[in-house]
Amino acid sequence: MVGGWMLWAVGNVWGQSPPPSDAKEEAVQQGSDSSTAFAPYANDFVTDQQSAKLHYDYIARMVEQGTPELAYDQAQMLVVYDSGSALAWGVIAWGDAKRGEMADAITEIVMAARSLSGNAFIQSTAGNLYA
After folding, report:
1. Beta carbons of 114 and 7 less than 8 angstroms apart
2. Alpha helices, DSSP H only, in the chain?
3. Which CATH number fits domain 23-130: 1.10.10.60, 1.10.287.470, 1.25.40.10, 3.90.1150.10?
4. Does residue 13 contact residue 60 with C-beta atoms inside 8 Å?
5. Residue 63: how many CB atoms within 10 A of its CB?
6. Please, what is the end-to-end C-alpha distance for the chain in angstroms?
7. pLDDT on residue 40
8. What pTM was computed for the model?
9. Which of 32, 51, 55, 129 sits CB 3.0–4.6 Å from 78 for a disulfide?
10. For residue 55, what pLDDT is reported?
11. Amino acid 11: pLDDT
């Protein structure tokens, strides 16, 4: 559901994401699987809930690992703090499509594709929505 979410563009999750700003965000990026990426995210979330970078790193890692469903809530939080995160909008679109909320999902994937059209996850999600 779109609600009050807005749009902000950020780098490509495959090789072009912003560099980590400190060790805690790097730990999220380096997690070898969902649980090892989630542990540092959860620990840091307790002290810095409004860190757009922390949310982005977690979302990017979950997308990279093929588990965007694990980043749906974080994507919704990210667009509150940085309303134009194309990757977050892509994850929200993916999740809304899985929930059968197709009108919202199409609106969200269009927003994501405007800023991050070359991203494989965005392309795949858009293709599945329009198929």
Report:
1. yes
2. 23-30, 34-47, 52-64, 72-81, 86-98, 102-116, 120-130
3. 1.25.40.10
4. yes
5. 25
6. 21
7. 62
8. 0.69
9. 55
10. 85
11. 36
